[in-house]
Amino acid sequence: MTAVRPDTTPKQAHEAQFPTGFIWGAATASYQVEGAAAEDGRTPSIWDTFSRTPGKVRNGDTGDIAADHYHRYRDDVALMKQLGLKAYRFSVSWSRVQPTGRGPAVERGLDFYRKLVDELLDAGIMPVATLYHWDLPQELEDAGGWPERVTADRFADYAAIVSGALGDRVGMWTTLNEPWCSAYLGYGSGVHAPGRTEPAAALQAAHHLNLAHGRAIEVLRAQLPAAAQTSVTLNLHQVRPLTGSEADADAARRIDAVGNRVFTGPMLRGEYPEDLITDTSHLVDWSKLVRDGDLATISRPVDALGINYYTPTLVSTPVEGADYARSDAHGASDHSPWPGSEHVAFHLAEGKERTAMDWSIDPDGLYNLLMDTHRDHPGLPLMVTENGAAFDDYVSPEGKVEDPERVAYLHGHLDAVQRAVADGADVRGYFLWSLMDNFEWAYGYSKRFGAVYVDYASQRRIPKTSAHWYADVIRRHALPPAGTV
Question: Hey, which of 14, 135, 231, 400 has its CA 20 to 30 A from 28?
Answer without folding.
Answer: 400
